[in-house]
Amino acid sequence: MSEPAALMRPYRPSDRAALGEVCVRTADAGGDATGLLGDDALWPELFLYPYVDRHPDLALVVESGGRAAGYIVCAPDTTAFETWFRDTWWPPRAARFPDPGDRPGREADLLRYAHRRGPEDQPHLAAHPAHLHIDLLPELQGQGWGRRLVETLLDALRERGVPGVHLAADPANTGALAFYPRLGFTRVESARDSAVFVRALR
After folding, report:
1. Distances, alpha carbon 80 to alpha carbons 88, 91, 136, in Å
2. Which helix (H) or strand (E) holds 182?
3. Which single residue of 6, 64, 131, 185 has CA 20 to 30 Å from 120?
4. How far apart are CA 124 and CA 107, in angstroms?
5. pLDDT at residue number 1
6. Any bridge partners for residue 130, and if so which?
7. Quick check: 106 and 28 in contact, CB under 8 A?
8. Dihedrals phi, psi of 116, to nearest 5 degrees
9. Residue spans of beta strands (DSSP E) within the chain
């Protein structure tokens, strides 16, 4: 019997573990980050689980072969989300992922980001207050699922009256850098270690 075709659907809490695996397997500039950190769970604790817990209604999943193999998540108000992350989400996790101080390295950089994460005054936020994360396993890439996820999410944000959305990509992720302009996103000036794209929704 052939495997069921891929399909897009709303997030369900039962997807959590599978999506955490997708997050880790795509966290290294789109490639597999398994084993790069002392604790792989840091990736989804930063870039996936806060979103599906706070805004599950804005999380979409692509299911392939009966399992979750891709997703898009979003915060419709970045300032409110980052305040919540700082004050509510991160404190119970801080002991498991301690502040690295001045220790160098990629894991230390992520930990510093987690411990210092909070609302920022960025020039694009007023017009583009929402932000998103999207990840697909290689088996789903190049088939139009990324476009469908993004367009479905943007329609939901428009219905909420959100004026615009932004995202940050790893400059080493060449696939992402080519993908977002095809969906109408424009790259704006940002720090050297991040490629920021924006799109108006009105």
Report:
1. 11, 16, 27
2. helix 174-182
3. 185
4. 28
5. 43
6. 165
7. no
8. -110, 0
9. 7-10, 60-64, 67-75, 130-136, 164-169, 186-188, 195-200
Other CB atoms within 10 Å distance of the CB of residue 12? 13
Structure tokens at 58: 């804005």
- Give the C-alpha distances (Å, rounded to integers) separating 10 from 52, 60, 167: 11, 5, 21
Distances (CA, A) of 75 to 10, 42, 48, 165: 16, 19, 11, 9
Report yes or no: 100 and 112 within 8 Å, Cβ to Cβ: yes
Note the pLDDT tens digit of each residue in 67-93.
999 999 999 999 999 999 999 999 999
What are the CA-CA distances from residue 142 to residues 7, 80, 122, 137 (Å)? Answer: 15, 34, 32, 10
The residue among 168, 144, 152, 136 whose CA lies nearest residue 57 is 152
pLDDT digits (tens, 9 = 90+) for 17-39: 999 999 999 999 899 999 999 99
Residues 100-150 have pLDDT tens digits of 999 999 999 999 999 999 998 888 999 999 999 999 999 898 889 999 999
On whether the CB atoms of residues 81 and 54 are closer than 8 A, the answer is yes
Alpha-carbon distance of 201 to 199, in angstroms, equals 6
pLDDT (average), residues 156-164 = 98
Strand partners, 135: 71
Distances in Å between the Cα of 182 and the Cα atoms of 28, 137, 147, 175, 197 are: 22, 20, 9, 11, 12
